[in-house]
Amino acid sequence: MVIAKCGQLRFPYRLNYSAVLLPDYLVPALQAIPPTRPRSFTTSAPHASRVGREPIALPRDVNLRLLDPPKRRGAVTRVEPPKTIEIEGPLGKASVQLPPFVSYSVDEAAKKATLSVLDRSSRDQREMWGTTRSYLQNHILGVSEGHTAILRLVGVGYRATVEPTATTVKPEYPGQNFVSLKVGYSHPIELGVPMGVKASTPLPTRILLEGIDKEVVNSFAAIIRRWRKPEPYKGKGIFVNEEKIKLKAKKIK
After folding, report:
1. CA distances from 227 to 67, 117, 157, 188, 242 (A)
2. Per-residue pLDDT for 65 more than 90?
3. What is the pLDDT of residue 33?
4. What's the start-to-end Cα distance of the chain, in Å?
5. How far is CA 60 from CA 64, 110, 140, 214, in A?
6. Closest CA to 115 of 87, 101, 65
7. Cα separation, 234 vs 179, whole angstroms
8. What is the DSSP pairing of strand 159-163 with strand 178-182?
9. Regarding predicted confidence, which is higher, 122 or 250?
10. What pLDDT sits at residue 6?
11. Is the pLDDT of residue 162 over 90?
């Protein structure tokens, strides 16, 4: 404990900083100071996201259909099974599961789909509201235009090819292709292309991935990138889409 006496501080053998006695003339000045609030990183006012309530534009050749959940014989449950929306377009079909508290409506005249929730005051429902809307938007874009990922191989001797067969990997389904990478290892890296994804090499140092499911396309791109991540000193590696890194200065001893 610190004791103030005659303008000087006399410290005992053991200090207790939780209780400090100050002179009387400093007490009014400290009481006038307002409590400080944590400083925010932004000056704009906080507001909730409005992604879920935004309507989704439907292309002319894309159709949505609500599928009824399968009925279980002899099973009684109080939990409502999730509903499924099937999206059909020129490139294929996809499906999205809707939580029980999310409902959707389609305006055929304006070709727009809108999602809504039962209770907007519930935080869990608001979170899944925007997430479900993003999933549905990605699948609609996938069956109409498709999703792509472009990988750039930067490095001396780095190249990639797409082969119908592989020597180190067994095919998972009939007709599966394999991406063969030469990125500085003593042996080529062979990766099986997932079902529903088309891989091509317009250039020896470029890999083009196309597919309906955005998650599958980006996941396979991340697997390829994992074999040679970009390094910050020479700038070599596998870059996905518009990925850029900041180069560092070389270490000089």
Report:
1. 41, 43, 15, 11, 18
2. no
3. 60
4. 50
5. 11, 10, 11, 21
6. 101
7. 25
8. antiparallel
9. 122
10. 46
11. yes
